[in-house]
Amino acid sequence: MDILTRNCVKIIGNGKQPIMFAHGFGCNQNMWRFITPAFQEKFQIILFDYVGAGNSDIHAYTTEKYKTLQGYAQDVLDIIEALHLQQLIFVGHSISSMIGMLASIERPDVFKKMVMIGPSPCYLNDSMYQGGFEKSDIAELLDMMEMNFAGWASYMAPIVMNAPEQPKLSQDLEQMFVSVNPRIAREFAEVTFFSDCRADLAKTSIPTLIMQCSEDSIVPIEVGQYLHEHLANSTLCLMEAKGHYPHISHPKESIQHMLEFLGEGC
């Protein structure tokens, strides 16, 4: 199977420095549309859809492979190998931050820097950790997805976008949600919200920017602080932006923090 077709890989930009943008749960590569123009002149931009999302080959999806984050990390590694990428800058949104980290642990030799937007190593609360959700919260979310997928998308989009002054952004996100196969979306949600990557944080020391929004219904500020404390060589950026999608709702601020972290010449 052709990897680039499987994951609908697109390469744009005039530069030589490769930068890969990885979308989060329920989305596709179109979520980077407000970000990529700022990188096109100096970077080689790699965009893709995880199997089951966007214009990927849905026939390549198997529950067996994608029942853990490692299956998604393998997609990233497959693309890296197919394109012979080196010194890669990886930008991951939400759960893709952990997917990218797992891929970098597998192949630290090809990763140069990482940018994590709204990342979380674990979404569930326990006695020593505040992830933001109880198991019952996740169970209700999964049940809602199963019983009324369109209703779930309509309910969730404005909450997680948190940009009431820009209603079209929530509408676009809702459309992105409902474009995903409901069974695959629910399985990805289950993998996402029950994942726990806390033990993996000590396995990487790649320079990492953690972009934490000031009010995020998915990721509490404590999670960003936890990541910063447990990720060696990390920088924590507390953004003015609210919501879980700052690269969509606040692209200028997002771009500014990313470029500052990457520096001149990257």
UniProtKB/TrEMBL annotation:
<comment type="similarity">
    <text>Belongs to the AB hydrolase superfamily.</text>
</comment>
<dbReference type="InterPro" id="IPR000073">
    <property type="entry name" value="AB_hydrolase_1"/>
</dbReference>
<dbReference type="InterPro" id="IPR029058">
    <property type="entry name" value="AB_hydrolase_fold"/>
</dbReference>
<feature type="domain" description="AB hydrolase-1">
    <location>
        <begin position="18"/>
        <end position="251"/>
    </location>
</feature>
<dbReference type="Pfam" id="PF00561">
    <property type="entry name" value="Abhydrolase_1"/>
</dbReference>
<protein>
    <submittedName>
        <fullName>Sigma factor SigB regulation protein RsbQ</fullName>
    </submittedName>
</protein>
